[in-house]
Amino acid sequence: TEPFLGNPQNTIAVLQKYNFNFQKKFGQNFLIDTHVLDKIIRAAEITKEDFVLEIGPGIGTMTQYLAKYAREVVAVEIDRMLIPILEDTLSGFPNASVINEDILKVDIAKLAEERNGGRPIKVVANLPYYITTPIIMGLFESQVPLSSITVMVQKEVASRMQAGPGTKDYGALSLAVQFYADPYIVANVPPNCFMPRPNVGSAVIRLTRHDVMPVQVKDEKLMFRLIRASFNQRRKTLANGLFNSPELSFTKEEIAEAIEKLGRGSSIRGEALTLEEFARLSDLMGEGRK
Ligand code: SAM
């Protein structure tokens, strides 16, 4: 079977057949634009070798496309009202299967082990926006073997993921994502490509996992605490941000010494620091603590 969802008429027909009610709390905005679907598939570089995890298949619109190009697709959907619909829309796609579960509760590493022999999987999704960050950070921080994540997210979130030092969108999310992956915004997607229309603009972003980590850091947890602390208080100096953080307990002197060793002036702000510098700062402060 060829993918038939993605055009508005067929989507409406399916929704009416099942008398489906959209659930706002699940972030349900279904894609109704075949060009966007093609773009996502192309950006994800899906081949017949690939095992793809889809998060939130909805009525199966993108799942059909993924099944056409991938070896196997597993889609995890929280809304049980969608399960009978998916059985119907995916009946012609035997390499696609659905798990009725909250993605945040799924053991994805185990899934990759069982279904893909532990080799890297690809994640593709039009994400429910209310849990974008926990989903993406969960994937990176867990032991899931991953080659890339290609996802639709809120436009502002995509900008933050891709932002570099000194820009207004640069922050803890930029650094967290860029520590693990190389971000690339594939396309901006306006609200009229979805049913119902979201209140925000959207963008497709591809996060390609680094083969080699871009920085070496002794204590990742400490580095991320430092990052959070320095962006908690924007427009303040890095030194103040670190000193005032409830997550950290360094003295003013320890902080000043580390910043000096970093080769930065005492008035430097956190938003000017690169990932590399946060890693060095973390190693410097970690030393001082012992
Ligand atoms: N992929 C479909 C499409 O593009 O038309 C639907 C995308 S819609 C933006 C997000 C989907 O994620 C919805 O089907 C929603 O029910 C599902 N969802 C929301 N929270 C979820 C969760 N915690 N775990 C799994 N799926 C979830």
SSE layout:
Layout: H1 8-17, E1 30-31, H2 34-44, E2 51-55, H3 61-69, E3 72-77, H4 83-89, E4 96-100, H5 108-116, E5 121-126, H6 132-141, E6 146-154, H7 155-162, H8 172-180, E7 181-189, E8 194-195, E9 202-209, H9 220-232, H10 238-244, H11 252-262, H12 275-289
Parallel strand pairs: 2-3, 2-5, 3-4, 5-6
Antiparallel strand pairs: 1-8, 6-9, 7-9
Helix pairs in contact: 6-8, 9-10, 9-12, 11-12
Bound molecules: S-adenosylmethionine (SAM).
S-adenosylmethionine is lined by residues 26-31, 55-58, 61-62, 76-79, 102-104, 126, 128, 131.
Catalytic activity: adenosine(1518)/adenosine(1519) in 16S rRNA + 4 S-adenosyl-L-methionine = N(6)-dimethyladenosine(1518)/N(6)-dimethyladenosine(1519) in 16S rRNA + 4 S-adenosyl-L-homocysteine + 4 H(+)
Pfam family, one: RrnaAD
Domain Ribosomal RNA adenine methylase transferase N-terminal: 36-211
Record keyword descriptors for this entry:
single chain; 290 residues; alpha/beta; two-stranded antiparallel sheet; elongated; binds S-adenosylmethionine
